[in-house]
Write a structure and sequence with these properties.
Blueprint lengths: L14 H7 L4 H5 L5 E2 L14 E7 L23 E5 L2 H4 L5 H5 L6 H9 L4 E4 L9 H11 L3 E4 L13 E3 L1
Parallel strand pairs: 2-3, 3-4, 4-5
Antiparallel strand pairs: 1-5, 2-6
Helix pairs in contact: 5-6
Length: about 170
């Protein structure tokens, strides 16, 4: 079996790391550096979430518009899956750069809701968020309402074959 690390290693010299270090609530801000998921309230990640069937959708060709339900085939998705999206954002722009945060694609509300209603465990992306600005938190909360967590800033998604099931740990 071949293992692929999907977590982003962030150096102390990275702009995002340096900015987080000087924040008043450093512990909270540091939790948003690199690969992470946002939790609001008293939610716990269930232990059974620690292993899942994974499925990757490569949407890296999409630019200048939202990723929608029409861009993926939900027939590949099962309840309990870890659904990953390769947008290409982290491959095109260095993590922490202005373009990394501003140039990544957004996911349509219909897609966010549709995936969550499938009762998947995780949505993983190689980008900073599903939606930008204030809509980032709203998108995460929609997912959490269905028990779905959003993992941001994944790497090495180019090493996973699209639409082929894999095991995620």
């Amino acid at each position: 079996m071949r293992y692929i690390d999907l977590t982003l290693q962030v150096k102390k010299t990275n702009r995002v790391y340096k900015q987080a270090e000087v924040q008043t609530k450093k512990n909270i801000v540091m939790g948003h550096v690199g690969t992470h998921f946002d939790i609001y309230g008293d939610i716990q990640v269930p232990m059974e979430y620690m292993q899942a069937r994974g499925i990757l959708f490569d949407v890296s060709h999409i630019k200048g518009r939202e990723v929608t339900l029409d861009d993926i085939d939900l027939d590949y998705v099962r309840p309990g899956d870890f659904v990953m999206f390769r947008t290409g954002a982290i491959e095109r722009h260095p993590y922490g750069s202005n373009l990394y945060f501003s140039d990544s694609v957004q996911f349509s509300w219909e897609l966010i809701e549709g995936l969550s209603m499938e009762r998947i465990k995780f949505i993983g992306i190689d980008a900073p968020d599903l939606r930008k600005g204030k809509e980032h938190i709203e998108a995460d909360k929609i997912c959490l309402k269905y028990g779905t967590f959003v993992l941001e800033n994944l790497v090495n998604l180019d090493k996973i074959e699209a639409e082929q099931p894999c095991k995620i740990m």
